[in-house]
């Protein structure tokens, strides 16, 4: 439970790579997060150091990311930080990965149109009627319930 949760704001640096694995969908992409600061001498904004993260998303999040993100999109990523060290060809390498919990477009820098995904239900349930929220004046909710047909399969 002592995992490091972070929120990184940046741009998608590489095209998301989608893989459909035995234990579910997975996608990864690189995130470039550049610090900006106001340079008083130049009276202008200046780019600072750029941090690169490999972002990993799984299951439904992976599927949604692969259909929503492209290179250059401004995004906000929240997830668990994993810093790894590796020895490659005699040199020590460090990488910072984010196991994403949530990913979204940065609406401070543009607009986005949300589309809900239709999930296929594993258990078929009987259709439920919509409740009648508009009870005419003078009628009680009990009278309204008596007038509604009972859903099929319920006894």
TrEMBL record:
Keyword presence, DNA-binding: yes
One GO BP on record is: DNA replication
The region called Disordered is annotated at: 119-155
Question: Gene3D superfamilies from the xrefs?
Answer: Nucleic acid-binding proteins
Q: Which SUPFAM superfamilies did the record assign?
A: Nucleic acid-binding proteins
Q: Which UniProt keywords apply?
A: DNA-binding
Which Pfam families has this protein been placed in?
SSB
- Which PROSITE patterns does the entry link to? SSB (PS50935)
Q: List the CDD domains hit by this protein, alphabetically.
A: SSB_OBF
Q: Which GO terms describe its molecular function?
A: single-stranded DNA binding
Q: How does the record describe its quaternary structure?
A: Homotetramer.
The protein depicted here goes by the name Single-stranded DNA-binding protein
Q: Which organism is it from?
A: Streptomyces griseicoloratus
């Amino acid at each position: 439970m002592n995992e490091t949760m972070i929120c990184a704001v940046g741009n998608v640096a590489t095209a998301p790579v989608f893989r459909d694995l035995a234990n579910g969908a997975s996608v990864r992409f690189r995130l470039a997060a550049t610090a900006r600061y106001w340079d008083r001498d130049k009276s202008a904004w200046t780019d600072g150091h750029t941090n690169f993260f490999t972002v990993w998303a799984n299951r439904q999040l992976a599927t949604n990311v692969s259909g929503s993100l492209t290179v250059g999109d401004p995004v906000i990523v929240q997830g668990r930080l994993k810093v790894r060290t590796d020895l490659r060809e005699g040199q020590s390498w460090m990488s910072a990965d984010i196991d994403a919990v949530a990913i979204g477009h940065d609406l401070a820098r543009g607009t986005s149109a949300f589309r809900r995904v239709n999930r296929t239900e594993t258990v078929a349930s009987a259709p439920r009627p919509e409740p009648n929220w508009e009870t005419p004046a003078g009628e009680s909710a009990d009278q309204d319930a008596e007038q509604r047909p009972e859903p099929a399969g319920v006894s």
